[in-house]
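quick q for whoever's on today - can somebody do inverse folding on this one?? i tried earlier but teh output was garbage lol. tokens:
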């Protein structure tokens, strides 16, 4: 039987898709490490620069410490880092030598696999990033073919990109990344063979979200066409806007005659753990989604749709939602069909909102759209409409942004922060507010253990301790006595 491997996305993409990237902290992950290692996954979709920023900003968790400790606890399962190539936390493209230091630090702290995702599919950018990664370690490098629906993104487009990127000896494997869940079974039947025909014997994986109910079926069809691994979420971290749920994926693959490279008993134990975490922390589990044909047209992610709906409600313009959705498709075409993956969905739909509620189209334009038109996010896959481009660039704000300084050179940043600062702290301070990094360092190491059973109790105690008049808290039951005094940390 043909064997299919699984890549677990629960801690990164599942967490991001379902819980806004803020559902899981280091303690949750450390407690899952041994259970995850026992499953035998091909890799763990573990982190990204935005997830590292969330660790600092929301949890005061040191993301470098998180990597080190998880890597030590999972020595045979590669930890995967997804990146757009030459960016780290900040929106600007960074100095290549700065990124060299980023890739060196990530590999030194345990990253064993990199996904290079360039939303514009710029071949030189991907090849340059792959070269930097390989020069600073021996991690695997996987090139992303980011799927979307447009007149530009044909099977030939993806095959040409894969062929060009595949000329680099630093690309080890590829994956079809479908962040919006747009890939149908029919399209998989043409796309997968087209890509496999140009990548030789290098593996091809699939990462298909289940946002509109297609991800599981597309992944199963891709398995029949020679995909080597399917990306899945475990238990509550799968389905919904996440990836196909792991246990159901295993059952479906076995029903289709495949052997799945995973320990099913270990997977059940891991599923039970994540279910208990979701229940204790109030994290809504992903649920199977019904097919929504309108999504294939507007391609607006659920989180962005919710935000815009709330903004319209606050303005008393809820009745304009359908007009904003229609305008979103036109804005996307105007801007050269950017792939609707962060930050582009937010950018495109916000511009659509401005166009609908404003005096005229493009009367108000966000700084991010101006930067996009300037090429600061990379060269658009298809040219921006000439009239729209002229309208956007012919305004005072555009001329101001043209004068924005580029990302500082590594040497300038070293002089700013001091040559003696450790690389890990330096990399965070270079791209994040100082007060957030200070708070993270002051918090110290993360807790090594986590128990879903006591999590609700600790949450209650934190809320009580936050009350001004809660100076001392004492809990007694039988011979058990817990006393918390003012100033004590929870």
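ok took a stab at it. sequence:
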């Amino acid at each position: 039987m043909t064997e299919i491997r699984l890549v677990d996305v629960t801690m990164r993409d599942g967490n991001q898709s379902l819980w806004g990237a803020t559902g899981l902290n280091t303690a949750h992950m450390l407690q899952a490490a041994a259970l995850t290692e026992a499953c035998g996954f091909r890799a763990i979709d573990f982190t990204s620069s935005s997830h590292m920023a969330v660790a600092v900003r929301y949890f005061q968790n040191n993301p470098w410490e998180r990597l080190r400790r998880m890597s030590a606890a999972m020595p045979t399962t590669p930890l995967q880092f997804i990146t757009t190539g030459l960016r780290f936390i900040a929106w600007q493209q960074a100095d290549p030598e700065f990124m060299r230091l980023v890739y060196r630090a990530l590999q030194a702290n345990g990253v064993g696999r990199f996904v290079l995702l360039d939303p514009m599919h710029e071949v030189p950018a991907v090849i340059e990033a792959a070269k930097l990664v390989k020069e600073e370690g021996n991690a695997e490098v996987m090139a992303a073919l980011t799927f979307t629906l447009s007149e530009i993104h044909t099977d030939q487009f993806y095959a040409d990109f894969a062929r060009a990127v595949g000329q680099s000896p630093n690309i080890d494997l590829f994956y079809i990344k479908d962040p919006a869940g747009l890939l149908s079974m029919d399209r998989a039947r043409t796309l997968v063979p087209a890509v496999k025909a140009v990548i030789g014997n290098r593996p091809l994986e699939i990462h298909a979200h289940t946002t509109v109910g297609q991800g599981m079926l597309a992944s199963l069809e891709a398995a029949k066409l020679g995909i080597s691994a399917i990306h899945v979420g475990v238990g509550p971290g799968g389905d919904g806007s996440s990836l196909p749920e792991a246990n159901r994926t295993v059952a479906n693959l076995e029903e289709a005659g495949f052997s799945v490279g995973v320990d099913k008993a270990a997977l059940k134990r891991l599923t039970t753990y994540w279910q208990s975490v979701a229940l204790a922390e109030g994290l809504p589990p992903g649920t199977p989604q019904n097919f929504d044909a309108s999504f294939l047209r507007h391609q607006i992610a659920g989180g962005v749709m919710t935000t815009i709906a709330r903004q319209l409600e606050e303005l008393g313009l809820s009745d304009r939602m359908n007009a904003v959705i229609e305008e979103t498709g036109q804005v996307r075409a105007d801007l050269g069909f950017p792939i609707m993956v962060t930050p582009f969905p937010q950018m495109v739909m916000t511009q659509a909102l401005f166009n609908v509620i404003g005096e005229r189209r493009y009367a108000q334009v966000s700084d991010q759209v101006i930067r996009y038109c300037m090429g600061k996010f990379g060269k658009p896959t298809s040219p921006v409409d000439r009239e729209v481009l002229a309208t956007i660039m012919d305004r005072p704000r555009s001329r101001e942004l043209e004068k924005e300084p580029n990302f500082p050179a590594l040497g300038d940043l070293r002089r700013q922060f001091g040559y003696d600062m450790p690389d890990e702290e330096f990399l965070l301070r270079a791209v994040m507010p100082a007060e957030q990094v200070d708070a993270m360092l002051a918090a110290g190491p993360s807790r090594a253990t986590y128990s879903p059973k006591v999590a609700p109790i600790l949450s209650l105690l934190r809320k009580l301790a936050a009350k001004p008049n809660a100076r001392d808290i004492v809990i007694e039951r039988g011979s058990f006595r817990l006393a918390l005094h003012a100033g004590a940390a929870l």
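fwiw The chain has a mean pLDDT of 91. also The CA atoms of residues 343 and 368 lie 9 Å apart. so keep that in mind when u check it
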